[in-house]
Amino acid sequence: xTTPPMTPVLTMSAVVLGLLVLSTLAVWLLRxxxxxxxxxxxSARVRAWWVMAAVFLCAVAVHPVVSLVFFALMSFWAxxxxxxxxxxxxxxxATLFWAFAAVPxxxxxxHVKWYGVFIIFVPVYMFLLLPVTxxxxxETKGFVASxxxxxxxxxxxxxxxxxxxxxxxxxxxxxxxxxxxALVLFVVFVVEMSDVLQYVWGKLFGRHKVLPSVxxxxxxxxxxxxxxxxxxxxxxxxxxxxxxxxxxxxVALGVCIAGFLGxxxxxxVKRDFGVKDFGTLIPGxxxxxxxxxxxxxxxxxxxxxxxxxxx
Amino acid sequence: xxxxLQALFFAVVxxxxxxxxxxxxxCGREHLPPGDPFVLIANHTSHLDTVALLSLFPLxxxxxxxxxxxxxxxxxxxxxxxxxxxxxxxxxVARHRVTRGNNPLEVMxxxxxxxxxxxxxxxxxxxxxGEPGRFLPGVAHLAEACPEVPIVPAYLVNLGRSLPKGTFxxxxxxxxxxxxxxxxxxxxxxxxxxxxxxxxAALRDAT
Lengths: 311, 207
Hints:
The complex is a heterodimer. By secondary structure, chain A is mainly α. Chain A is built from eleven helices and no strands. The longest helix of chain A has 29 residues, at about 245-275. A seven-stranded mixed beta sheet of chain B has the order 1-7-6-2-5-3-4, with helices on both faces. Chain B is globular and about 45 Å long. The interface of A and B includes residues 76, 81 and 88 of A.
């Protein structure tokens, strides 16, 4: 077999389509039963999910290069949202330029599957390069803040997200009919479902806040209900993975909790910046970062587990 | 031929660049006059300012919209002069050694009389992002000389972070163009100047 099997993509497309139809129907019914309620945001969110699911599934299905370009654009957009809200100094200009230049470089490393450099390029080489470019700007006031903030963004949104690309490139496991693409579908679906279900459980039963000073909308009921139900939902998707049933549950729980923590970290960042959303790219959701925040934390952990345990 | 090159440049390079690389947002597009002439005034922090303001118009209108630009800077050197004239259709004005023959006010008035619209940065030069720039009196002279021409205030956000003065490579930041309703200020020149300055400042402070 030279071409990877399309079956996982088709199956997941069918699953996602079913869920989207169901949620669209649910919103429609809610509007009919309780016309007084405010369903506009929910409705906008569901509509945006249709677009996001279609774009993502296409990007993953067509060709690995298309997928990598798409992931690189996600990193680029997220990094742009982040630096726009940073209090940058005029002297950071060259440093920011190099930070953005790291996006194509990092995804090129993913493309050529150069694992040794992929895994240290941002944490080591960019870490060493960025402060040097700041030194060349010859302004010491605010130096440490600039060096740290810019590299932090690079780690989270470029290094972290690019693991999705490397995961996609992982070869098929002999005898299991599972390849990197199926693993990407698995982790993205489970993490995003966990986000959605945390929101739903939180809206329905949320009473006790988890982190009131960071994110007033996150509740224990939402967290536990969302994470558990997403992990449960992951079990029938075991065909996308090489895992045993117990391992599937364990990994799904892990990525959902990591996703929650990623969301909490980005909430803290937003609080610090004094904004509600990172941008306006996705109606009802906010910016790119508001949607991929959980992936930035869950995907590297998922990748390294799979890479360690199965490759 | 020049206008065709400019339209092509805006369609193929400028618009994709502003949409994908910068992610430019426009607020108050409805305030743009549907016909010429008018004067569009804005704060000035970057070479991208002119690019962004020109991109607000349909390609076929570009030929009649002239960014007022310092001749000593934009016509210095053959390549720069060609680019400024061809791709940006600038209206060059003298900043130094002003004579009766090259008086900027007359040059601008003639362009308006010929039915062309102007993009004018009344600060006269690029300032730092976020720092309030003071308008030079020229814009008040122009408003007084052409009281029938509407003046549209604009405030540009973050373009000065993307490509500040003294840099050559743009860095992507989300940027915004905020447009205000057209003005026809009256009164003394000092009053006109204050009215225009505060119209731009009001857009800066709006969120």
